[in-house]
Write a structure and sequence with these properties.
The protein is mainly α and 72 residues long. The chain has two domains: 32 residues; 38 residues. Helix content is 50%, strand content 6%. Strands 1-2 form a two-stranded antiparallel sheet. A hairpin with a 6-residue loop joins strand 1 and strand 2. It is elongated. The N and C termini lie far apart (61 Å). The structure holds zinc ion.
């Protein structure tokens, strides 16, 4: 879970690009993500995708409905 700065050994939070203690670039350090966390991440991305799709779809339906009724 935690990664440590190779320069000063400070424990760093995930997704930090730079060490907050010494400024060392830690972007390309391996971050240990468990299989469980990776699955949760994929699942949330999936639902965000579904949400975007439904949003776009309903917008299209509203626009088509609006055009349909305004041309009558
Ligand atoms: Zn450091």
């Amino acid at each position: 879970m935690m990664k440590t700065c190779p320069s000063c050994g400070t424990e760093l939070r995930q997704r930090y690009r730079f060490c907050h203690e010494c400024g060392e670039n830690v972007e390309d350090l391996d971050v240990d993500i468990t299989e469980e966390e990776a699955r949760e991440l994929r699942k949330s991305e999936f639902w965000i995708g579904i949400g975007c799709f439904i949003f776009v779809l309903s917008a299209v339906i509203i626009i088509i409905g609006f055009l349909f009724f305004s041309y009558r």
